[in-house]
Amino acid sequence: VYLLAMFLWSISAFMSVSGLVEVLPWFRIMVISPIVMMLAIFYFVQTLLFQRSQWFILVILYGLISSYLILFTDLLLSYAYLDQNGALIYEFSPLVYIIASIGYFLMIYSLVKLVRGMQETESPDQRNRFRYLIIGLGITVIASAVNFTALGRYPIDIAANAITAILISYAIMRYHLLDIRLVIRAGLAYSLMTTILGILYYLIITVFVNLFQFMSGSELLFASVVVALLTGIFLNQLRERAQTAIDRIFYRQRYNAGIMLQEISQTTATVLDLDKITGLILDAVVDTIHVLQAAIYIKNLQKEDYQVIAFSSPENLRMINFRLEHPVVRWLTEYKQVLYKHQLSDSPYFKSLWGRERDDIDEFGVELFIPLIAKNELVGILVIGQKKMNQHYTNDDVLTLTTLANQTAIAIENARLYDDLENTFVETVVTLANAIDLRDTYTSNHSQQIATLAAEVANRMGLDEKEIDAVYWGGLLHDIGKIGIPDSILQKPGKLNEKEWELMRRHPALGAELVSKIKRLQHIAPIIGSSHEMYDGSGYPEGLKGDEIPIGARIVTVVDAYSAMIDKR
What we know:
The chain is an alpha+beta fold. It has 21 helices and eight strands.
């Protein structure tokens, strides 16, 4: 409504002084346009600030009464014409000042609301948006006031409208409030579709009239109505299908983003592996939003900084170091909103950025910093680089990424809670292993010795770090199953009988079953379960031999035998 009123204002102002048409009707439109603009601004500000004025009905009545008095009576505008020199001559009645005063009160009220909104918002980016609106609307207010003075005969209002349009256009382009290219392309497509359907409707009706010229009177009228209705129904179905096709073309990314968010939501609800979750999320971002590089940082409580846990970027690209005192971290912690790259230059908040930190950000090509908030805490940062083909990030892109960030934050928090639970289980199992060492005089400190020696053997054999770690834990917990063996057997000074040996041979399987319940220790269950097997097949509990025994279990078995030979039992 505001843009339509601005357009009518400019057109009517031009037509009033053009000398091409009758002046008075166009001058009436020019006078009513500022009032319509004021009403549109009033409701726009109410909507923008999520408010509802108690004057709603009164403002509607004011608009209707003002429009009637200006357009259809001489109570406000007596006359308007061009003299011999082409000058615009007009006369208002005193009543116009009452009408204008009410409109200006609404306008000033709206501007005050905008100013308060700008002061109350915590986002610098939002303040900039309010600022452009305030400047643009302020110019419009001043220009509309000119029409009620002697200066109204000059095209000051047209120039002011142009300035306002430039300001708003700059704000849109500067802060990417709209994807202009998408709006233009989609608008042209919808216009073309409407034109084609209109032509089809006209052609169908024309052909029908020509074919049924023999009809006359009520018969022709009835037939025309029936054909028009059937044609309208048919073309409406065609329009819906065409509109669906156009939406699929121009809003494919939004459609794909919706599917991506749904899939990520389902995945994060079942997967608790932090590395896997973050990897899937970054892959989804790259494929759906078409970004060149992206990274996820999570808070490291031990080192007091944010460290990258997943990234999708060139291998030689230097990662950004986010210390807890980093201005970006402090801003995201305080405002909990998306931080745009241009804000690093516009806002004085980031004057304390070090030169090296700015270089890291520039080298990475950062466009967006998106906070990962869980329980009102900044648990991580989603860093988004440039889009392919140097495209800007639209509001839909930012909304998608923000929604994804919320899901990511929840997933990170759940994964951390699960990790804490796993750590608790591991600590409990280790405590049990230590308790077993205390129960069995032979195994006193035995498990730790086996773990250390087995890890050293694995290292000398050239196993990788993960395998060495598995051997260490397998050695540490290889006797954990003895928790199910009675003390009378563990502490028996003499030789075990057959029944006692049968129970003792079960402890590797018991230990493997115990650790298999803990996700973090599942991979060492085979080592524990086979830690008492022999290469010749004479071991227990399964009697495995040769390569049937995992390499880690073979190492632990040899080290355990070596320990038995050198220790006093």
